[in-house]
Write a structure and sequence with these properties.
Chain lengths: 280, 144
Amino acid sequence: MFAAPFDYARPKTLDEALALLSKHGDEAKLLAGGHSLIPAMKLRLAQPKVLVDIARLDALRRIEERDGRLVIGALVTHAEIAADRAVASRCPLLAEAAAAIGDVQVRNKGTIGGSLVHADPAADWPAAILALDAELDIAGPKGRRTVKAGDFFVDLLETAVKPNEILCEIRVPATGALVAYVKTEQKASGFALCGVAAVVDAAGKRVRVGITGVAPVPYRAAAVERALDGQPLNAKTIAEAARHAAGGVTPLGDIHASPEYRAHLAAVNTARALERAASR
Amino acid sequence: MTLTGTYRIPAPRERVFAALVDPDVLQRCIEGAEQLVRTSDDAYDVHLKIGIAAFKGSYVGKARLTDKLPPDSFTLHVEGQGGPGFVRGRARIRLVASEGGTEATCDGDGQVGGLLAAVGSRLVEATARKMMDRFFERLTAEMG
């Protein structure tokens, strides 16, 4: 399959890239790792007139620590995050989620920013980003703005990033070791039928749970978090709380899994993620 | 794939039915519908510009209404074909009078075929649901 014809630009700076987006409006698409966009173009589901290749924007390819937070550039690949030492020690949930994505090729080329902005409902990153309560920095023609993870995912395949904006970095707090990502994947694609990320605070009294793959938009399992607030974490309290994992959402259904099955997986994986996180 | 949904619309059944079979209303309510060209009684070519994130493109689909039983129900047939495959579907739409308006129930099933089915059926289904939800949102606004 061949993509429809398109023009190609490779800006050297963020400003140049933003100018190209402003000029071409919604006829342009940003190309990062290309592991969602290029297949969509080959299927002609996506037919952008102009590809703006930002792979060479080195400023977006770094992992650094700033003000006690870990800052991940949008163009850092999944494999780089999985292998990074600072990530492993400061925010191990990101390393665990990165290692669960797709296959080796996808992890080597695909980027965290590209995946987040594409907002595939079965992508892995959203669960971790939500559970970590991350902040996302977005550059646009009028400067930069920060969006909380909870406000980032707007709808199916839609985020807070507008067509003339670029996601630049993802900031996450340092966590302890009490984290886990548990996923049931669709065997052929590796996409999540249901992925649950859990973060437990040091005292073991507060939890944050992010769930992907289940609903059209990834979400925080607020009912689970409330049920466990201030409670000791044990098999009984976890099992009780995890029953609410798909509360308030309309689960997706497709050829791979019915809505009922996805809701069931949400409960099972939430319990497993919390148990695993609490035992680390 | 199956596509079902129930929507409450604050208008009497007769008005809702008339709106649902009115090409002008449909064009306003189907997200991305740029043009509805009538090809025969109750059959249309729908020129769609779908702009859901990465999946932007222009498509031409066929829509046909059959089994019209005003103001109770009708059947909508849709068909779209493109490079990588096809989407075909049929939905029975039933209108039931309810307190303060009408309850519309959409009961549909469809097939996705070709290469599209192998790679994209997951997203086609979720996208179809989203378009249906938005359609009824807009219709509700239109009736308000």
